[in-house]
Amino acid sequence: TELFTKYYTEWRGGSDKDKSYKNIPRFYYRLPAEDEVLLQKLREESRAVFLQRKSRELLDNEELQNLWFLLDKHQVPPVSGEEAMISYEAYLKVGESAGPKCKKFFTARVYAKLLHSDPYGRISIMQFFNYVMRKVWLHQTRIGLSLYDVAGQGYLRESDLENYILELIPTLPQLDGLEKSFYSFYVCTAVRKFFFFLDPLRTGETKPHTKHCTINTWPLNLRDEELSKESQESNWFSAPSALRVYGQYLNLDKDHNGMLSKEELSRYGTATLTSVFLDRVFQECLTYDGEIKKKTYLDFVLALENRKEPAALQYIFKLLDMENQGYLHVFSLNYFFRAIQEQMKLHGQEPVSFQDVKDEIFDMVKPKDPYKITLQDLVNSCQGDTVISILIDLNGFWTYENREVLVANDNDNSSAADLDDT
């Protein structure tokens, strides 16, 4: 037995492996089961203590006010316009006096980011203070989001995010005018954008700590009480934008049953989406008795309003890839473009040859395989939105076909405006 154990251990390399095992750090921690109440409570308490500690590391209102007084005290003349300025030397002095919580803000990298065209090499005190404020708000938001991560797994489920946004609405000045009866649609509208762009595989989970994640940054713009009308209209999360989408949905829902049929959806936008494309929407997307509900409609709107974005291209590409092959070939392009040709005939226009359009599409995309266009080809080409518009929307195709005329008209209008100014 001793010899067997000796040779078996040597042959399988067990002795060396046993030593290496001791050097491997533990990387898996089992989650407590539902019946392990004590372990669950311990885990919840440890998460709460961790988040409280992180929260204490942030600047509070009193510390922010003290920082502003220090910055104002160390401003360096002359004033640039109406803005008080500070030099790098004074900036470092403030950093020494502001306390340990502010140390991370007073670095050469931050100063260089905010340095623009001041002839004395100074930065704006207001710009620096706004930078600090936004950083604090950002980290407060991340901590707040973590509190809604009920599972403690580093991601938010749809219900978690809905609860977070619903409780945040009363704290955002830009949403003060929202009626409480509209809260449910607003929450649904906001959540759909997060999941559309941050959960492209539709797992029902989204990570709030992803780099450049909009969940962390979206409340910042809505805290600005002086946000311009143009900024509000272009911001999906603003009240005017949400009301616009809601109004469109109500106008399309002619029978007022809370859902949209294919016929109702066909009137979306300029009412020039092809019937073939709409057929694919109802084939691939979730429907109820042959009609779509508001969540599906919001995904549809997000895809069409953000055609340049990879997530939107992925959504529409899936509809165009009828055979689920992962690429589009000539037959696919022809199938969808025939519907454009039929619409042109209905409007009394001379149909454009598919061969010409096909060649232009392949020239724009320049796919790796000269006979197949993949989703990645569309993304890499930066022409995916144009290709999509050509295939699904008569208005989009017309805009592309007459692009030179439209550019010339824009130039003429600009020239006329310049002459008027003179």
Chart the SSEs and their pairings.
Blueprint: H1 2-11, H2 14-23, H3 37-56, H4 61-73, E1 85-86, H5 88-97, H6 108-114, E2 123-124, H7 125-147, E3 156-157, H8 158-168, H9 183-198, E4 205-206, H10 214-222, H11 229-234, H12 239-252, H13 262-265, H14 275-284, H15 294-305, H16 310-320, H17 330-346, H18 354-365, H19 375-381, H20 384-392, H21 394-401, H22 403-421
Antiparallel strand pairs: 1-2, 3-4
Helix pairs in contact: 3-7, 7-10, 8-9, 9-12, 9-15, 15-16, 20-21
Structural features, described:
It contains 22 helices and 4 strands. By secondary structure, the protein is mostly helical. The strands form 2 sheets. Strands 1-2 form a two-stranded antiparallel ribbon. It is globular, with a radius of gyration of 29 Å. It starts with a helix and ends with a helix. The mean pLDDT is 86.
Helix-strand pattern, N to C?
Answer: HHHHEHHEHEHHEHHHHHHHHHHHHH
What's the shape?
globular
CATH topology of the domain at 310-417: Recoverin, domain 1
Count of individual beta strands: 4
CATH superfamily of the domain at 310-417, by name, is: EF-hand
Please tally the helical runs, counting DSSP H or I stretches of 4 or more residues. Answer: 22
GO cellular component, one term: centrosome
Keywords: Calcium, Cytoplasm, Metal-binding
Protein name: Serine/threonine-protein phosphatase 2A regulatory subunit B'' subunit gamma
GO molecular function: metal ion binding
